[in-house]
Design goal:
This protein has about 190 residues and is an all-alpha fold. The chain has two domains: about 90 residues; about 70 residues, no CATH class. The protein is flat.
Length: about 190
């Protein structure tokens, strides 16, 4: 039984089937879901030690910040949903279904990064993750180019991004990240 529910909404909003993204109940559910996620993160942050580490910042600081910001965002979402829906929500412009080939490329990059970081080191494993993730994003836009020159170009960009991060953590903050050698520079 395909029954349509109609809701009174602002003139600039369209009336859709129940369960669609423009349905106020769906939007309220999303808002409550974000609030539940914030509360869950807050509960999880309570279990993390509050002993200050390197720079006087405890390991539970960032989870509390994320939980607090998600809580504030959920309040704004709840307000919008209660006052007629997400007014600035644009039309869906993505593909009607997920792009599985791109998902596989990105997933392979993340999994290989986690698997190889201790043997290849931070810089090379993150560069590999970048190269594979870019393949996934390009394949989703039908711009996948598998020429060796593009692979090397992306690998150099990946290393140019990950090397300063590695050096910043290891040299400036004295935080150990896995390197390729014992020099501390790669």
């Amino acid at each position: 039984m395909n029954q349509k529910w109609k809701f009174e909404m602002a003139e600039d909003q369209q009336v859709d089937e129940a369960g669609s993204q423009r349905d106020p109940r769906w939007q309220m559910g999303v808002s409550l879901g974000v609030l539940a996620l914030a509360l869950g993160l807050g509960l999880g942050a309570r279990t993390i030690s509050d002993f200050a580490g390197y720079g006087g910042v405890a390991p539970n600081f960032l989870p509390w910040v994320v939980a607090g910001l998600l809580g504030v965002c959920s309040l704004f979402l709840l307000k919008e949903a209660a006052q007629g829906g997400f007014r600035e929500m644009g039309d869906a412009d993505g593909a009607p279904r997920g792009h599985w080939a791109g998902f596989v490329w990105v997933s392979a990059g993340l999994l290989l990064n986690a698997w190889l970081i201790t043997s290849l080191g931070f810089i090379l494993s993150c560069a590999l993750c970048y190269v594979l993730a870019i393949r996934g994003f390009r394949s989703a836009e039908d711009h996948l180019d598998l020429r060796l020159r593009i692979w090397l170009q992306d690998a150099l960009v990946g290393m140019a991004i990950s090397a300063p991060v590695f050096w910043g953590f290891t040299q400036l903050l004295a935080i150990n990240l896995p390197g390729l050698g014992n020099t501390g520079w790669i």
